[in-house]
Amino acid sequence: MRRPTFDLDVLRTFVTGVEFNSFAKAADRLGRSTSAVSAQLKKLEAQVGTPVLAKSGRGLVLTPVGETLLSHARRLLELNDSIFQTLHESQAAGTIRLGLQEDFGEHFLSDILRRFVQTYPRVSLEVKIARNVELLALVESGGLDLALTWDTGYMSPYATRLGETQMHWIGARDTPLLTALDDSPLPLIMFDAPCVLRSAATQALDCAQIPWRIALTSPSVGGIWAAVAAGLGLTLRTRIGLPSHLTVVSGLPAVPSLGYVLHRGGDDPTPATQQLAALIKTSLQEQAFSFAVTK
């Protein structure tokens, strides 16, 4: 049996007339003449194959088929309006200010941007790559709409802990393992304090009674990777963005996992901001899965 395709304009007229309990009012609301509304209702009943309205005194009431149709018509119109709203919002211009800790900025940014622009091609992004302290200060001052940081124990008013990743001791693949067996302090390559990974490294070594020294500090992750590759020492990082010429080093004190948190700048994010937050979460979940598979 050939199934007819319902006209959404006709369904909207039907639903509006029922909700106003007057098709004359519906005609006025929809900017149509009463004769046009009457023609639409006749078309609808012809498609359904049975009356959807019946006379009751001086008015009209829904037939049982009409009641069923009303429920489905409302759902169809809601879906239609939702699709239109989503497409309209995707074309809206604007700017989102995104802050990322450098590990995430190097590894996730291109993938997130590629996915985001497919849905919101006209929304501009202002990306700030910085360390936790600066990012959290910008969130507090309203300078960022979203910020992805390491979990330092501070939770802003609109923060969500997305997950965690394991910290590892990292060294160069082609450099002999640096140890403290000769009682020389273990050379470390770190960020300046305060740094959550630096604190975790020194605390673990102190608990294991392994002497250490800061051999080099760098303001960037790239600088840390370069110093480790040069054999100047070891560092403590996660596997996020780990270069292929560096490797996880065993035989040193165990360290805990490190959480990551997504901070929002307010309680009423735009649809584009919500979409970007969802993409960040998805990207992190995919990365966590890939780490689990390659272990």
TrEMBL record:
Q: Which SUPFAM superfamilies match?
A: Periplasmic binding protein-like II, Winged helix' DNA-binding domain
| Pfam name, any one | LysR_substrate
Source taxon at top rank: Bacteria
Keywords (A to Z) from UniProt: DNA-binding, Transcription, Transcription regulation
Please name the GO terms that the record assigns under molecular function. DNA binding; DNA-binding transcription factor activity
Q: Where is the HTH lysR-type domain?
A: 6-63
Q: Does the keyword DNA-binding apply?
A: yes
Show the InterPro entries listed in the entry. Answer: LTTR, LysR_HTH_N, LysR_subst-bd, WH-like_DNA-bd_sf, WH_DNA-bd_sf
**Recorded family membership:** Belongs to the LysR transcriptional regulatory family.
Protein name stated in the entry: LysR family transcriptional regulator
Specify the taxonomic lineage: Bacteria, Pseudomonadati, Pseudomonadota, Gammaproteobacteria, Pseudomonadales
